[in-house]
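Reading group handout, session on sequence-to-structure problems. Before we discuss, look at one worked example. The prompt was deliberately terse, the way you'd type it at a terminal:

> structure Azaleucine resistance protein AzlC

The input record follows.
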Amino acid sequence: MVFTRAGMRRGARAALPLYLGLLPFGMVVGVISAGKGLSLAETLLMSAIVYAGAAQLLALELWADPAPVLAVTFAALVVNIRLAPMGAALGFWLDRLRGWRLWGTLATLVDHAFAMSIAEHRAGGRDAGYLLGLGLSLWVAWQAATVAGHVLSGVVQLPPGHPLFFGGTAAFVGLLVPIWRGARQDLLPWALAGLAALGTQRLGLPQPLPLLAGALSGAALAAWNEIRARGGPKAGSEASSGAGSEASPGTAPSGPGTAP
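And the output record:
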């Protein structure tokens, strides 16, 4: 694993096509923020610190006067809890980063950067700067989009059901393309996630519970499939035990340079 500025630049360039879905999504957040009475500074501050489109939209839907702080905080926490397994899945890079490289990468980690980085790693990429470059590029674009949406909110009136509101959904759907590994590995977990989310919604449970149900069920099945593909949870310990017995003292003479 390496971390280079060239990798950051390559990640920033790789993020450019994602702007097509990100910018409309950010503008919608800006428009809704203005409609809820947030100032431009408040909108920019929320986007800069929270930097999570789905959580921001959900928080704005729950926004009232006085603001239900606990309800909004809990809803945002539930939506963003998906970032925990994302961080674990990116351990091949994150575990080796330190200081500003690690904290900067974590602060700018979003679904888009996650999906692109997983695809990059599967293709043999070793530069962790790619992930930070993606995140920073998308972060800058997100700030610009939310500011533009807030500024134009007085001019542009979007009726319910306007195609621009589909921008966020389209962006997330587009993320599925680079991480799709084929029906054998991904079809069942993805189908289970969709069915769990739909079933939870049909039960009348409020957001973000359907999203959480879909994410957790799909992730659990995918993790179970990975464990089975590697021979089960005991495979690693058996392999280590076997390696230890083969390298036990006395089986081979020690020579110059042999590790102690």
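Points for discussion. First: Residues 182-233 form one domain. Second: The mean pLDDT is 80.
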